[in-house]
Each structure stands twice: as structure tokens, then as C-alpha cells.
Amino acid sequence: MSRLGPMIRPFVADGMVDLLQTIGRAMRNGCKARVFFVDASFAMNSTQNRRDSQRSSMIVAMRDVLQELLSSADPVEREIYRLLYEPFLHPLRNCANVIFPEMNPE
Q1: What does the pLDDT read at residue 33?
Q2: What single string gives the DSSP state of each residue in 60-104?
Q3: What letter does residue 5 receive in the DSSP assignment?
Q4: pLDDT at 6
Q5: Quick check: 38 and 32 in contact, CB under 8 A?
Q6: What distance in Å separates the CA atoms of residue 30 and residue 41, rounded to the nearest whole number?
Q7: What was the pLDDT predicted at 73?
Q8: Which residues of 42-70 are buried (b: 16+ CB within 10 A; e: fewer)?
Q9: 2, 18, 73, 77 — which has fewest CB within 10 A?
Q10: CA separation for the pair 30, 2 (Å, rounded)
Q11: b/e per residue, 14-32, with b = 16+ CB within 10 A?
């Protein structure tokens, strides 16, 4: 991810489609789901006790993409994104053992 430059957002968004569909199916009908990101590449710096960034962590990048969507200036867009993606954003913000960067103020 660190080498993608401006292509990072489309790469992350593309990867999120499969991941969120899989998690969403597990959560269907209000079922609780537990997801394990077991590959170090999901948060490489955190495995070395360092803060991750959008460039080093797919988890951080996914969180940032979702946060951006839920912060849309268009109220209709923002509400649609909230209904679709908020159930995924909160758990991503709370992934255990990921050392997150500080969030930019909205």
C-alpha cells in the first residue's frame, strides 16, 4: 500500500467490497460476528508496536475511507452512507492491537 500513491483509495475501496460483504452476511438478522485480521499486512506497524497510518495499514485506510463517506457535505449522501456503512465503521475504529493515528477533526 505504501507504493500506491494516489491509487490507494480505489485499491482500499475495491478490497472493502468483498470484506464488507462477507462481514455483512455474518451480521445478517442482527447476529454478532467476530472478525480476525490475522495477517500482519493489515496493520504492519502495529505488529512492531508503532503507530499505523493509511499507508501502512488496510484497517486504518478502510476506517478513513468510511469516515470520509460518513462525513459527506451532502446531507442525503451522508445519511445513505451512515445507514450502509456505520455498522462497519465503529468496529474498525476499535480493532484490538491496532495503533491508530489520531483522527483529523471533522
Answers
A1: 85
A2: HHHHHHHHHHHT-SSHHHHHHHHHHHHHHHHHHHT-TT--PPPPP
A3: G
A4: 85
A5: no
A6: 30
A7: 97
A8: bbbbbbeeeebbbebbbbbbbbbbbbebb
A9: 73
A10: 36
A11: eebeeebeebeeebeeeee
Interatomic CA distance for residues 73 and 50, integer angstroms: 33
C-alpha cell of 78? Answer: 451522508
- Residue 102 is which amino acid? E
Report residues of the chain scoring pLDDT below 70: 103-106
Q: Which cell numbers hold the place of 39?
A: 495477517
* Cell 445519511, located at residue: 79
**Inter-residue contact 30 to 56 (CB < 8 Å):** no
- Measured torsion, CA atoms of residues 44, 47, 48, 51, in degrees rounded to the nearest 10: 70
- pLDDT, residue 104, reads 52
Put simply, whether the predicted model's pTM sits higher than 0.90 gets the answer no
pLDDT at site 31: 87
Phi, psi of 19 (to 5 degrees): -65, -50
Q: Are 36 and 22 in contact (CB under 8 A)?
A: no
